[in-house]
């Protein structure tokens, strides 16, 4: 797909772009660099909050973006981007496209544990916190997010 001039211009701007090329149509937002929270300013005016809908199979997703009234450019603030990112992860989960790693369960007589693959530990620190979300009531499916303590 060839990029329009407008797209090329957008990419030069100092924003972080969420791009998901696998995700059908063009999904393009910009996250305000310093702004954790909208509204943003575009064309010398404050962006307005609009509701958008997207669906993926039976999964419907409603979300808000900030939009410039004039150029219609859409911006996501940090919270909106986070939510959208989760939606993309769920889609990948449904399609079974997530990178999956198998580990042996270890037991030291008291505690069950498994080791992280070395390749994934470069950014980890000893003080990090593992936030574990239980996904199924039988305790066999988890979502683990490693968070740095500030
Ligand atoms: Zn604008």
Strand order of the largest sheet: 1-2-7-6-5
Structural class based on helices, strands and sheet pairing: alpha+beta
Please report which band the strand proportion falls in: under 5%, 5-15%, 15-25%, 25-35%, 35-45% or over 45%. 25-35%
Biggest sheet: strands, sense, closure?
A: 5 strands, mixed
Radius of gyration, taken over Cα atoms and rounded to an integer in Å: 20 Å
What is the quaternary state of this protein?
A: single chain
Distance between the first and last residues' Cα: 42 Å
Mean pLDDT value = 79
3D structure, described in words:
This protein is an alpha+beta fold. It has two domains: 5-94, no CATH class; 106-147, no CATH class. The chain has two helices and eleven strands, in the order αβββββββαββββ. The protein has a five-stranded mixed β-sheet with strand order 1-2-7-6-5. A two-stranded antiparallel ribbon has the order 3-4. It has a two-stranded antiparallel ribbon with strand order 8-9. Strand 6 and strand 7 form a beta hairpin. Residues 12-25 have low confidence and may be disordered. It binds zinc ion.
Write the layout of secondary structure elements.
Layout: H1 5-12, E1 16-19, E2 28-31, E3 41-42, E4 45-46, E5 48-56, E6 59-67, E7 74-76, H2 78-94, E8 106-107, E9 112-113, E10 129-134, E11 142-147
Parallel strand pairs: 2-7
Antiparallel strand pairs: 1-2, 3-4, 5-6, 6-7, 8-9, 10-11
The structure holds zinc ion.
Key traits:
alpha+beta; two-stranded antiparallel sheet; 2 helices; binds zinc ion
């Amino acid at each position: 797909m060839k990029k329009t001039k407008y797209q090329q211009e957008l990419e030069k701007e100092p924003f972080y772009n969420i791009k998901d090329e696998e995700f059908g149509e063009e999904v393009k937002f910009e996250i305000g660099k310093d702004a954790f929270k909208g509204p943003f300013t575009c064309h010398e005016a404050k962006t307005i909050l609009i509701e958008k809908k997207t669906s993926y199979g039976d999964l419907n997703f409603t979300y808000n973006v900030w939009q410039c009234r004039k150029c219609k450019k859409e911006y996501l603030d940090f919270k909106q981007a986070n939510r959208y990112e989760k939606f993309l992860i769920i889609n990948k989960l449904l399609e079974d496209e997530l990178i999956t790693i198998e580990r042996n369960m270890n037991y030291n007589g008291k505690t069950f544990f498994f080791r992280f693959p070395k390749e994934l530990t470069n950014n980890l620190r000893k003080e990090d916190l593992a936030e574990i979300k239980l996904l199924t009531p039988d305790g066999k499916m988890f979502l683990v997010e490693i968070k740095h303590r500030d």
